[in-house]
Amino acid sequence: MVTPTKVRAGRVASLLGGVQSAKGTPLDSFTTGTAGRLWDDETEDGVPPVKSDPSGWMTKPQLESAGRYTDPRPFLMGFSVKATPFSLELLLRSNWGPFAAGAFTLADQVNEWLSLVLVENNQAGATEYWHRIYDAWVHRLTLAADLQTPLTIVADAAAERSSAVTALDAPGGTFGPSAQLPVGDKNVFPGRLVRLFRDPAGVNQELALHALEVVIDQGLGTEDDMLRGITSVFKQGNPGPRVTLKAEAILSAEAWVILTRAIAGTKERYRLTATAQAPAKTFQMDFYEVDFEADPIGRDGQQYVKFSGMGQAHRDDSGNFVSISLT
Hints:
By secondary structure, this protein is mainly beta.
């Protein structure tokens, strides 16, 4: 029987993130400014390189070791974190655009790059390792909530560069003991305080939510940069970001209005609000020109009937698309 040594415990691993001062300048300190430890539930760090298939070059794998090489790809990291004012600001300003005066502004290209670091802490006194990707941005961001759980962010990030896997006590990083930073922001947005309104500037009709999901997909573009010897990552641009809103609610009179509008092809404005309590913070998203497509409706036994539908935001005649604020 094999007895493993220095077994890694997930509960003491840390995910650190921060906005870089400039592209090509990775962060190595996460204690100040727009940097810190994210309250993560799950993290997947794409450390292993992708290798080529030697048979594609008519080589003989059993004879020619030089026929297998590292295939250039972006460095990927996916993670799920609690939505707090800190994590919302950090990840939305990478995905959506700059944050100022309580509002985010949609940017055509990535203008703020991230450094993301996974730090382990296996056992007391044992050697720990860290791995950092930098010149990274969140190309796909999902916000999800239900009545029982806080608002959660699921993020997919792509980076142009990666640091080597390094021992925490070796030269090359200044994480030191601060690598196991406490989570600095635990001010979550409870799912019961996430609300969705139809036509907020008019009837302001609230839906009896059970669950909600918002997906912002900016479109990940990649290109081999022969000059720099890396794979560059960028926003694909045209046709621009795709923002979808999925809601599950009781099939009530309010939900029937949404179904009626969907059948008629009528697009409307929707507003999502979420409230954190200590200290008080409000997160708000307005979706313009939303049209819904609904899942089949009916009943299951004697329970209430559930409405489930997905809408997509579009730009209206005044240029409004999706507005995001955190105040």
